[in-house]
């Protein structure tokens, strides 16, 4: 896939699949359900995305919702980020969507997921913002199958917080609902990307101590149960 991963990202000398980024992502989703990619996209694209993100007036961002729940007060306990839905009107966003289209086709070819489209938004976590533990999709009640988050926070430092904390997949742990065992902490470092199965992994954004920039997206299937959008747009 042209832009979705760089050679530097690929550990050498393990197996034939390692040379093909799409293969590596598909294998990870099949075997562990998620993958963290330190630098899958070209720096020029990342820079253009961040410039576009920052050029948008803050007033064009909306307080993010949580599924059907439209109670602003309640939402504020769960998440305090602000989002901006993306389309192809900006060239950098359009290039990013091209990469995600390559990924979509590559995953469909390898995993037969039947991914139908991709929707994404910028998310801005101002200082003090968080998103409590949640699932992006509940089995049988959504059309979101694969979640992606691309981080655009420049010069992120550990003291800045805002890590994505991923919990053990549901079913694989003792709990029926949300599991409590942290299996991964992903730094929202510029250029880093995480891809995971939407229905499997509870996750949480820890409080960010500075402005945190990201692009969150979902590959969806086209099923009749898909009227629930989280967040509603
Ligand atoms: O920004 C992140 O690390 C995750 C965001 C997230 O979980 C969401 O928007 O559903
Ligand atoms: Fe999420």
Automatic annotation (TrEMBL):
Its cofactor is L-ascorbate. Residues 111-221 form the Fe2OG dioxygenase domain. It comes from the Bacteria. SMART domains: P4Hc (SM00702). It holds the Pfam family 2OG-FeII_Oxy_3. Gene3D superfamilies: q2cbj1_9rhob like domain. InterPro entries: HIF_prolyl_hydroxylases (IPR051559), Oxoglu/Fe-dep_dioxygenase_dom (IPR005123), Pro_4_hyd_alph (IPR006620), Pro_4_hyd_alph_FE2OG_OXY (IPR044862). Keywords: Dioxygenase, Iron, Metal-binding, Oxidoreductase, Vitamin C. The keyword Transcription does not apply. Residues 1-21 are annotated as: Disordered. This is 2OG-Fe(II) oxygenase. It comes from Microbulbifer celer.
């Amino acid at each position: 896939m042209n832009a979705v991963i760089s050679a530097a990202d690929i550990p050498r000398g393990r197996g034939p699949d390692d040379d093909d980024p799409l293969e590596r992502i598909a294998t990870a989703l099949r075997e562990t359900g998620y993958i963290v990619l330190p630098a899958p996209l070209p720096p020029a694209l990342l820079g253009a995305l961040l410039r576009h993100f920052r050029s948008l007036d803050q007033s064009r961002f909306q307080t993010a919702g949580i599924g059907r729940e439209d109670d602003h007060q309640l939402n504020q306990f769960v998440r305090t980020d602000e989002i901006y839905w993306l389309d192809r009107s900006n060239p950098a966003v359009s290039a990013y969507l091209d990469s995600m289209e390559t990924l979509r086709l590559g995953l469909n070819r390898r995993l037969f997921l039947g991914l139908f489209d991709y929707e994404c938004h910028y998310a801005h976590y101002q200082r003090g913002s968080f998103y409590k533990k949640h699932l992006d999709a509940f089995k049988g009640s959504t059309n979101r199958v694969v979640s992606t988050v691309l981080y655009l926070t420049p010069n992120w430092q550990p003291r800045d917080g805002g890590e994505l904390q991923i919990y053990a997949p549901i079913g694989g742990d003792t709990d029926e609902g949300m599991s409590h065992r942290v299996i991964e902490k992903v730094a929202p470092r510029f250029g880093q990307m995480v891809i995971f199965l939407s229905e499997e992994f509870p996750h949480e954004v820890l409080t960010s101590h500075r402005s945190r920039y990201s692009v969150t997206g979902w590959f969806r299937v086209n099923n009749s149960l898909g009227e629930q959008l989280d967040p509603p747009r």
